[in-house]
Design brief:
With about 120 residues, the chain is mainly alpha-helical. Helix content is about 55%, strand content about 10%. It has helices at about 5-15, 40-60, 70-75, 80-90, 105-120, and strands at about 65-70, 95-100, 100-105. It has a three-stranded antiparallel β-sheet. The termini are far apart.
Length: about 120
């Protein structure tokens, strides 16, 4: 038996022992079509769509940077840089990341933190 025939036989044996999940492939080797697996395709959409929407919501808007430095936080809050530095020293600003000695903050973490502070103040905390 030649090498190609042996590999083909091994692949056939593997495929028999490990059949693909209906969501992985169709008979043609592509994604399932609704007419072939209507329940599987529907279930896939139920599971994937919320994750996709959440991932898209987490992406920064076009032109909006992922990271910001302290001066950008100060500008956004209309505070002096020194006040933001004291805020970082005393309370800590979330989302801190150091890149080659440069401190940056994840925009989403900073905005979430600010919203939580605003909500806390509105509830009398």
């Amino acid at each position: 038996m030649g090498k190609a025939a042996r590999l083909k036989a091994e692949k056939r044996k593997y495929d028999e022992l490990n059949p693909p999940h209906p969501l992985e492939t169709t008979a043609a080797g592509g994604r399932p079509h609704e007419e072939e697996h209507p329940q599987a395709a529907s279930r896939e959409r139920e599971l994937v769509e919320p994750l996709r929407e959440e991932a898209i919501a987490d992406l920064p808007r076009l032109g909006e940077p992922w990271l910001m430095d302290m001066s950008e936080i100060a500008h956004m809050l209309k505070l002096s840089l020194r006040t933001v530095q004291r805020l970082e020293r005393d309370e800590g600003i979330p989302g801190r990341v150091v890149i080659k000695g440069n401190v940056r903050y994840y925009r989403k973490s900073v905005l979430s933190w600010l919203l939580s502070k605003i909500e806390g103040q509105s509830h009398g905390e």
